[in-house]
Amino acid sequence: MVKLKAPGFSKSMLALGMLFLYLPMVVLIVYSFNTSRLVSVWAGFSTKWYGALFANEQILSAVWMSLRIAFYSASMAVCLGTLCAFVITRFKKMRGRTLLSSMITAPLVMPEVITGLSLLLLFVQMAQLIGWPVDRGMATIWIAHTTFCSAYVAVVVSARLREVDLSIEEAAMDLGCTPLKTFFVITLPVIAPALVSGWLLAFTLSLDDLVIASFVSGPGATTLPMVVFSSVRMGVSPEINALATLIIAAVSVIAFIAWFWMRRAEKRRLRPR
């Protein structure tokens, strides 16, 4: 008779950790199809809350606002973060390199309350001195999100740049490539998976931010986390459960596509020629 081997301590802790992380999401998804408005009572299967969600103009407007801000912030953060990472990793003898590195990584450890308050004071002083911004809205949230998302992108891209073989770039320049062409033809394809990872990370951070957006937003600019937070304070609505389910589904699909694309790119890069 074959005895079943009991799972080890590490596997048991892993299973408990995964259960702790994903069980609340499963419960949320299940209750998004609940007929009852009460989240603690199951009254039957229904999809009416998804219809109510798509009829809610406030939530739809906040979703569109948050998606635009996240897209613009992630794109700008990739540009600025890649530039900072390139300077930090390649110009090692530059004066002030340590100071620059510390300033880039500061938003990673800075409390969001401090970051939001400092940006709010900055925008207020700018409005008094130069007359811009007249009203705090989408532009101020975009600038604020780009500020702290750039730090995360810089860390991700710099880790990838340190692994790049410099002899390949040197060989390209020896054959007549300019430094700019070498970057776009040689370096950029190699660090492309890090750029995608950094963009997705920045997009997620911007889409999820509540504290900083609350400081720098105005009456006409309300992001999705602000709407969800204000509605949850009055009681959890089934529409929020439906919205969260759609977000989980969208994020899962995007993450799978990004993983599959980066996996193919990595295999293509390591394939012998």
Describe the structure.
The protein is mainly alpha-helical. It has a domain at 60-234: MetI-like fold, CATH 1.10.3720. The protein is 76% helix and 0% strand. The chain has 11 helices and no strands. The protein has helices at 9-31, 48-54, 57-90, 97-109, 112-129, 138-161, 166-174, 179-208, 211-216, 224-233, 238-270. Helix 1 (9-31) packs across helix 11, helix 3 runs parallel beside helix 6 (138-161) and helix 4 packs across helix 6 (138-161). The longest helix is centred in the first third of the chain and has 34 residues, at 57-90. The radius of gyration is 23 Å and the shape is globular. The mean pLDDT is 88. It is a multi-pass membrane protein. It is found in: Cell membrane. Belongs to the binding-protein-dependent transport system permease family. CysTW subfamily. InterPro entries: Bact_Polyamine_Transport, MetI-like, MetI-like_sf. The chain crosses the membrane at residues 12-33, 69-88, 108-127, 139-161, 182-202, 240-261.
